[in-house]
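Two proteins, back to back. First:
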Amino acid sequence: MLPQEPEPPLSANTSETDDRPPNNVHCSERSRFLVCGLGSLGQYCAMVLKEFEVPVSALTNPMPESWESTKLPGLLDDLVIGDCRQPESLEKAKIHACRAVLLVTSDERVNVEAAFAIRLLNPEVRLVVRSAKQNLNALLGESLGNFVAFEATQLPAPAFAIAALASEVRGFINLGEALLRVVKVPIDADHRWRDLRLLHELNTSTRRLLSHIPNSQPLPTEFHQWEPDARVQAGDLVAYVEVTGNLADLAATTALASRSESRVKHLWQKRRQVLSVSYLRQKLLSFWRATAQQQTKRVAIVVGSTMLLLLVCGTVIFKLAQPGVGWLQAFYTAGVMLLGSYDTVFGILSPQDAIPLWMRLMNLSYMMAGTASIAVLYALLTETLLAAKFQLPKKRPPLPQQDHVVLIGLGRVGRRVATFLQQIKQPLIGVSNQAVDPNLLPQMPLVVNELTNTLTKVNLATAKSVVIATDDEMANLELGLMVHAANPHCALVIRTFDARFSASIDRLLPYAKVLCAYDLAAEAFVATAFGENVLNLIRLNEQTVLVTEYTVAPDDHLQGQLLAEVAYGYGAVPILHQRSTQASVRLLPSDDTRLEVGDRLVVLATINSLQQIERGELLPRQWQVCIDKALSKDALFDGATTIARISGCSINVARDRMNQLPGILPVPLYKHQAQRLARELGKAQVLAHLVPL
């Protein structure tokens, strides 16, 4: 990140941040950005870059047939028609003046070749490349330096998977050994927070509030647009990020919590059902249907059941025919007869006794049934051994019957969505219109058929949600309409590529979640072009939130700032902080932490927040704290320490203010910061209240 001109220092603010020199490099020619390839993704990237108010050039071949926005050609500073692999075209696009180049053509080979050509012309420029070849990307990163690669169709995949869950979870954030989740929960009449908690009380060491939407109010556009002293009420929507365990444990806990209420409610009903004949018959039929794609298992079940029935019947018949024979001997005799041992069977009878004809026929029948069963057993055993010996593909699991996700389309996005859902133990069914490699997601139930003919085979009536992620927008729309007609109550997620088409589907299908893949990915590409590391993206309140990592550099405008200033001044949410001299990390760090050179910081930020951070444009501080009275002598010392810690001013300024009460602290603050200072002063027996600036 290049250092930017900071906000003009406030006369009353004695924070260390006031001593940084201004720098206007963000408006200079060195901050030019070049977009190579003006397909849908390239056009989205160019539009987002222009929101940062930086010079943007484009290099494409040929000229786009259609524009995502008719204003885009006029917004570009330079538009060059040519091959991005040719030095002449790159020179025309002013490659030497570029800060970053986004190589986002649809051809990965062209992107890689252009990266080599650009690196020869400009060794310092940052390269952001569209490529799905992970191993090659890692090698290129080592060889070219200042190189980052993404795949536009894969980057938004977690957003599709989270939308498919149709639950309160909005996203997972994996930070090494730590895992956080973003949750948006409706407050109903039975919620434990209703009428009992103020919003600021929801912030703990493992949880940070992101947004509060009162009943029937519009969605917030930024973080921290909530009143700390407001009370949680029924009908509200509350979003927060919290620290949790590993992904699998979280999935099990979430699933258990979501079903615990229904289990308690139906416990007695289930006990009564288990004892009913109709319930047992229903379970047997469900089990039989579940083995429809596993004929070997069905044969084994039939053979085993037949052998067991013959064994029981034979035992009873021998006991009745020979009252002097014990039950154990009768059981043994029936078993041996099934194995074809004639002498052992009739050895229990006297040699001079005539063997009844019905018993001879019974023995013959048992011998034939036993021989056939043994043949089947040998066949099953041989199949198992051959499969193990030659590693033949195994049968896929049976189709789930209810509360599953139907995933239509197993391209790159579909496969990543399936992988994510399997990690959190979510039952799902994959649907494809062409044969799939048996080794691809072998634990995923699969239906292969024409997509429009598969909806009757995936238990759609009992599905939790349907994700339609094929590469054909029109097919996605058609399938979406068919799904809603078949099951209006399941959640519906549709993948699109065109913003105007997405808006049309939004109006046509208000019940569906329409996610434009390129629109989601463009913001991550652009954020990375500015030198930041985008770890993930999630969807919250109908907008994209980027999980972005910063490293505080010398002369960086972040240096010396409190995390409170980063949070409320830029509209971001710090979720991880790590000193360069320490191996341990702090999740959801305190607002009182001051950033130093080399610190690692991970924040949740919208694209608008990233623009403010890039430019160093802090929002104005509009509140002050009036200190009324200290209730004890110790409160004077504790109050000064609290003021210096939370406001960021020097300890001398804080002590001077505490020695001249009552009075207003000469340090403008953000509202959340000022309210927290007043609350902490109250704990230190110092009375204070807020005053608007």
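And the second protein:
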Amino acid sequence: MSSPTSESAPVQAPTRSGRSFRTRLAAYLSLFGIVLGAPALFVTVSAPWSELDDLIGEANVVVAAANDRLPLTVRAKLNQVTLARLAEDPAPPDAVSLGRGLALLVQEGQCLDDTALSERLNAYPDAENFDVPAVSAACRAWVSWFEARADGPGELLAFHQADAALASALRTAGRVDLVAGDVYLTLDVPGQPFFERNLAYVATAARWWERPPAPGHAFDLVEVDGEFWRDSYRPERGGSPGFAHNPTHAPLLPRFETDEWGTWFSAWYAPEPTDGHYNTVTVDINAAAVTAMMSRAAFEVVLSLCIGLLLIAVAAGELARWVSQPVAALQNGAQAVIRLDFNHTVPALGDNEFVTLIHTFNQMIRGLRERGNLFQALEKVLSKELAAAAANEGLVLGGQVVPATVLFTDFAGFSTITRGVPATEVVSALNAYFYELVPLIKEHGGFPDKYIGDAIVAIFGAPVRTPDHAERAVRCALAMQRRLRTVNATRRAAGKIVFEMRVGINTGDVMVGAIGCDEKLEFTSIGETTTVANRMESICRIGHVMVAESTWAAIPPERSVSMPHNGPSSLKIKGYDEPVSAVEVYADTLSIERGPSEAGSGDPYRYGQLPTGPAPTR
């Protein structure tokens, strides 16, 4: 018979009146979306980032042009001068005058006396804090310094070339509408103490009346929180030579530098190092336009969010007036379900979709009540897994005769092996074996009927009907024997008790049903089919499967060919006058007999190979 289910009569859903909840919600959400203007907001937010990307692209053009005009020979001479100045004094007190003095020598081609220098400065009203005598003296000191060096003329020429290259790059920045403050060359030498926290200025595009740094002037990365600069091109710090710039998300907004000249953003190019020296060509970009756009975008976003939140608050208040009562009723219904109170009924409230929802919720509660009643009955005779399957597919109950397959297992020599072994150890061993074997029965669609000491009885085809119950039972038996090989190998290596198993299978009409009383019911099978399965087990080879001819005939020939067996044979079994036809199916080619394989080994079985091996013929 099918599973006991009760079908409730269909209930007519109440008719709605007035505007639906969905219509009202759609109207408010549409109004909110239109006012908020999500597409426009996205454009507003992304505009500063697009502008920043454009600035970076233009800056890369500038530094690439400068790098191309600074060959390795020029950079090598510039680095020589920078390192020499660092060796003399890494922090000279007159660094500003030294920078202006060298720039004056390079850009003017000569040193000017104090009078000429003052007259020249009159043309540059932006020249501030200019110490004319100090700059004039510094220029002459540079002339003497280069004259004293072996390659002084060549090094001075390299500064002329660097000034031309960097000044040209600065003009390129102007042509691409990039507001650049300076283009300059720096030096980084791993392993030297000065460069642990600094880069050294080498050359710059700044004019001599401004404040160009002298070669070797320190750019303190730690002070300006600029370690990302070195990280971008030093492989040992995770970088690689190439184009780079200030982090654009640090952690969320770009990392700009702010000083007395404004807000700046740097981009640079670091070619492959020469002799361990890293030179970077850097351009400082005025980021005022980007920061202004970000401020404006932030204001617009905040304003839009405030308007949106106000609209949401108004909409939420209006919607709460329509929704609060039905939601509260549904919440009470949900709490009732949590308490397993399936007799609760949610009252119908409102004039919109909530009426339909409440109606559906009440139908769900009735369904849960009926399902709960069904499972209370099924769990008395089935495991939870089979109860779930039975609820969907139906089952056989009440003492019916059905076609099914019965599987018997038994451990060979169990009583002899366990004689003298503590009961706790025996129970532990059985539990370990059953833990491995019983799940295989369920995996193959069988029902673990009962344990009889060390034996397992399983039914295939009842209480849940499966048309291929014979094949399922045989394949399950083979899987159990093969699983036992693995389990025994592990237990034998651990010095634990091992058991080898016989399996018998028979197919036929079986009387199945619930036996017991209201307090305890047990689903089981009785009859001749079950008895023959028991007899099949008793005459089976240890470690293999004895299948009655009735079971073998129920398996399609094309499916049984893959099972190694010895063909049908007539066997005399206890309690039957006539021989019974059976097929012995082999799990493998192993031959197992009672008795230890070696004297004193402690293993209760002898292992070998079957004489001829199983022949897969029908």
